[in-house]
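Most newcomers find our protein records easier to grasp once they have seen one. Read left to right, the backbone structure tokens trace the chain's path through space. Once this layout is familiar, the rest of the handout is easier to follow. The record below serves as our worked example for the rest of this section:


***
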Amino acid sequence: MLDSLKKQILKLDKKAALAKAEHYCAYQERSQQEIRSKLYEWGLWKDEVEELISELIQTNFLNEERFTMAYVSGKFKIKKWGKMKIKKGLKLKGVTEKMISNALKTIDYDEYLETILVLANKKLPAIKEKEDYKRRYKLTTYLMSKGFESNLISEVLLANGLA
């Protein structure tokens, strides 16, 4: 009951919704899907939502390519995520496969491998396992959970004497 009451109160007219959406986009890069969900949440109808999204794209408040590049850069450089986890996150945000692929190509390969090594060296002291193969397994599992590819993890660990 409270939810339906909230939705009735939240119903915005198109002009107010556009202003609010512009502010929402200006604060942080957003995907079209995020904006679409927010507009529906604000009580707009499908045709109004699509019209506002089109207007946000024309005024450059909404740019899917810019969003994708910012997402990839932030998740890799700040969160230290691997390509697999970044790709999954972008798919959940409704970004096209081609755009994801292009954005992931901007990650420097050497920097990517270096990130795996840094994370491995940081995690290793925290693993209390005594047996080498179990330590290696836990380290590999951790790095895979960060979204790095198992073949690259093995390559980095072997090359640096961590495997």
Observations:
- The longest helix spans residues 109-123.
- The chain has a mean pLDDT of 92.
- Residues 130 and 136 are 10 Å apart (CA to CA).
- The chain is about 70% helix and 0% strand.
